[in-house]
Amino acid sequence: MNIPSSIWTLLIGIVLTLTSLWYGQNHGLLPTAASDEATLVDGLFDTMMTIGTGLFVLVQGILIYAAFKFRRRQGDNTDAPPVFGNIPLEILWTAIPAIIVIGLSIYSFDVYNEIGGFDPHSAHEAPIAGQAMKMPGAAIAATLNDTPPSTEPNANQIKSDEAMSDPATASVRNSDQIPQKRDAPGMGIVSPGIGASPGNEGKVPGLAVNVTGLQYAWIFTYPDTGVVASELHVPAGKEVKLDMTANDVIHAFWVPELRLKQDVIPGRQSEIRFTPKILGEYKVICAELCGPYHGAMNTKFIVETPENFDKWMQEQQVATKGNLEQAIALNAADRSPAEFLSPYTAQMGIQPETLHQLHHQ
Amino acid sequence: MTQAQIQRSANLSILEAEPGERKWRDYFTFNTDHKVIAIQYLVTTFIFYCIGGVMADMVRTELKTPEVDFVSREVYNSLFTLHATIMIFLWIVPAGAGFANFLIPLMIGAKDMAFPRLNAVAFWMIPPGGILLISSLVLGDAADAGWTSYPPLSLVTGQLGEGIWIISVLLLGTSSILGAINFLVTLLKMRTPGMSTTQMPLFCWAMLATSALTLVSTPVLAGALILLSFDLFAGTAFFNPTGGGDPVVYQHMFWFYSHPAVYIMILPFFGIISEVIPVHSRKPIFGYKAIAYSSLAISFLGLIVWAHHMFTSGIPGWLRMFFMITTMIIAVPTGIKVFSWLGTMWGGKIRLNSAMLFAIGFVSLFVIGGISGVMLAAVPFDIHVHDTYFVVAHLHYVLFGGSVFGIYAGIYHWYPKMTGRMMNEFWGKVHFALMYVGMNLCFLPMHKLGLMGMNRRIAEYDAKFATLNFVCTMGAYLLAISTVPFIINAIWSWMYGPKAGNNPWEALTLEWMTSSPPAIENFAGFPVLATGPYDYGMDRPKSEVDVPLADEREPALAAGPKSALRADPDPNVAANPEDRK
Ligand code: HEM
Ligand SMILES: [Cu+2]
Ligand SMILES: [Cu+2]
Q1: What domains can you pick out in chain B, each with its CATH number?
Q2: Residue pLDDT, tens place only, B40-61
Q3: Residues B276, A284: Cα–Cα separation, whole Å
Q4: Is the dihedral of CA A166, A168, A171, A174 positive or negative?
Q5: Torsion angles phi and psi, residue B33, rounded to 5
Q6: Do A261 and B384 touch, CB atoms closer than 8 A?
Q7: A287 and B455 in contact by Cβ < 8 A?
């Protein structure tokens, strides 16, 4: 075969390697890594970028080079010298990708373990409620479940029920059609998510928060204080555990800066754990299509100093009491959803424009 | 004498003198000629491609600005749901079947498909399926739960649209099962006497792998959709959590089909590329067996990777690892193909015509999609980018850069055979240039959008993503424009293009040994293999080649399929030189 002289090959190889190494570290494609877990994931991505860049440049280089170098000359209608194959070369280009993907698998396995993917406690048990078996089809579904059910109560349920019966959210939701799902853990199965990292396994997390997704808002309940919020506040440096479920359709909890995503599924509980470390205000995004307002279903995720967090928590405790009384007093059917919801829109993570549009459609 | 001449002179006796002329009316009837059906498939699916493309550009128009200002949120969701459904079930999958219909009988020297009537039935399920689907948009209640149609969302968004979606996908799925049966039987039973499986062109191998995969996986999709329709209309609770059903079970069933479906969508075009590159590089395909067997490997592995679409939806840790490893392994047979194509081009005498340009474009874009695919297989990373624009970028590099470029390569390559006329090269090159630039402009920035935090299937997004989205939208418009020179070229050349002759590319596979367009039953007798399918540059004097005359084979045929005469492949024409005498 017509390979360039060995010096050229060597030089090109060196330049290719250096370029890939440089780009793999300096691509600037990812947002801030706000947790320990995120840093690990970024390491994996950088490695894959390095390899990917090398392969990309190699293949595109060969294509462009071949298209120019081996172009048919005008008037030359003969065939090229036949080469049917080359066993050593074929073994080489089978072996190299094989080694790369085995290496990447091992690396990914390691990162997955470090971020807590194998924590057995993130898959606990719960009985399947009697009623679950009443519907045709349910028994088949139940036998196909891949994880044992859980007994842990869902502290979020009451609060999310309240939100579900709220006429304002109800009007944005598919309210009249969605059969509401109550007491998820009773009938459900646990959906394993990302649990504690090996160092934290078995330990009680620094902070536990219950998360409920519903069309189109997130509700966060802090079980230790009973505070209910529409933004997720966490103190930096403490391990946070989220117990999540959904009331209507599947949603997905995603904070890009944490590199963490987990579906929030009605009828199931899922769990993720992480340790935030960089202060800042980020976004919780719903990543699973959940209806027309899916794109608007996001809220703030705030990592603050432990002192600020405590302060916030105290304010919330006072506010929650007030709000509840107010909510009961104001929950009158004769008010339009927009009027009713306006004091809460900011809190609920629903933009006022959303409501506005809704009533003018 | 060149190999093309040897092949031709060996087959002179079976050449139909008259090219098959057809009236336009034939294409609107229940015709059972595989070539008519093939054109019906290709033209119909192309029309659906244009409709799906208009929807894509409407989606992109909405995304030009961060606000919802072009269509309502509900319509937006219907648009991308139908866009994806049309592109998959009404364009890529049936377009592959269209090529298979045209090429398989010709390539293996058969007179038609094994079951010509079944073939027509399979085609005639597509137009109603497609019209039904699109009518739901006109009725104002189209499906809007995404093409994945995950419950419980799909159970609450509107019964009419969802019901129509289910019925039309079931129709289209049935069509592809019927097609697959036909391809399998044809490939296994109808080869010209003396052609062993290892003498088949690589497109045939690709269709063998595709059809097997279709047969195994499509019924599972049908099962999932039928159960979903029970939940939707009969109040059962297979997937409805309110009654104790489990939405995750639907995901398993859905992806058990829909992951293999991506190989159903790409394998035929791997096959096309393996045909186009050697002809226009004037070199034998590099590593025939490696390419043939890697198709089978991909179709087998394709069946055990489905849960990589569910890494964030709640499957146990060890299962995630299992699916990560199987997914990664697919990179190996795929890599073998890519390197073999590069090896074929290396040292060739490449004719840079439109067909070859699209083939090169295919390899170039597919590699990008393949690299991001391996990244997505890595669970910790996929958890970050799942359901974001990174995935949208990845899937379009594979399906658009891969499949659609493959289709165009195939059309430019076989157009002379299908119509008897040449296409205009200049406009073909313009088409390629516009499409290649548009493709990268539209989809490359989406990688960054996804990594930075833009989720998919949204009509509104954070203002910080506005610039990149604007670029994507301009790319999408360019893509739409790029189709215009092609459409005009295809129609104009069909009517006025220069006559092509039987074998304008001097190719060796059997479809080029008959007239263009081929007559009704393709060949007057049974074609013989005087050369392997890829023997470019292996000029041997004719005396060295023991060319059996076509009529010498007739007794063998009369003796029936078990006859020793018939079963013996000609050792002189093995595709692999080591297998030759
Ligand atoms: C004209 C060129 C195309 C453009 C501009 C385009 C654009 C888009 C966009 C923007 C989305 C994301 C919609 C959203 O998340 O809201 C999308 C989704 C999708 N497209 Fe395309 N597309 C094009 C061609 C194709 C082709 C040729 C295929 C081939 C099969 C295809 C298959 C898909 C699929 C499967 C999805 C996923 C839809 C979903 O998330 O449910 N597209 N497309
Ligand atoms: Cu949501
Ligand atoms: Cu959502």
Answers
A1: 31-496 (1.20.210.10)
A2: 999 999 999 999 999 999 999 9
A3: 48
A4: negative
A5: -70, 125
A6: yes
A7: yes
